[in-house]
Specification:
single chain, alpha+beta, two-stranded antiparallel sheet, 39% helix, extended, hydrolase activity, DNA-binding, nucleus, double-stranded DNA binding
Length: 265
Amino acid sequence: MGFRPKSKMKMHHYIKPANFIYPDETTVSGSTKLFSVLLRRCISREVVAVCKYIPRNNSPPIFVALVPQEEELDDSSIQISPPGFHVIFLPFSEDIRSLDLPDEMPKASHEQIDKAKEIIKKLSFNFQSESFENPVIQKHYRVLEALALEHEEEEEITDLTVPDAAQINKRAGKAIDEFMKAVFPDGFDPEAKITKRKASASTAAAGGAKKAKTDEPVDVESIAKNGTLGKLTIPVLKEYLKSVGKKAAGKKQDLIDAINEHLGL
């Protein structure tokens, strides 16, 4: 579609994970030479290529930006970053909306920030992945062990990934309480359950009207003559077959065929 300066690419253009492409001579002969020339020119001119991307047949077109990446080697001439293009999926105009934000956004006070830092400091620790067993794999092993040894119940496992509430409260309970008092208004109970709002009379009436509409009888024979039985649900088709003394079993197409056969269509 054309080329744009690399500086025109903004962070809000990044709407989904990008892809990375490189040439494949087995698919397109001569693609390596064309790819190399295009990559060098884009890097030297600091531009990105705007393209129309159609991933597969019958897929809608998507505009993408090909952001060049130069090959990077370390001191031992070992490749760190390969040469190629990052495929950035660009948003359409309606994907970007302007928000009416208030003139002054609420900001945390210095006291609130200090309380939050204190919680983080008390709950920080040196993480090592070897200290945590995968509970899913451990559960799998326990089941296999129970089957092999013919045990009626498998051995219980300890899920080390679940937060230790008692230890958290011991280390940072006081700091958490002070943070909540500094952030939440007086009388606020974060542990209070939120009660669901009851449906209004108009909503209930609308729901009742909708339900009454679904209870109306369906003229299956007229629909069958129009050739639109596929729009009906399986329960409706089965109910009609049972009412005429026919077997109501099988997939949806089997039910439609049985009704058509009964009506001679």
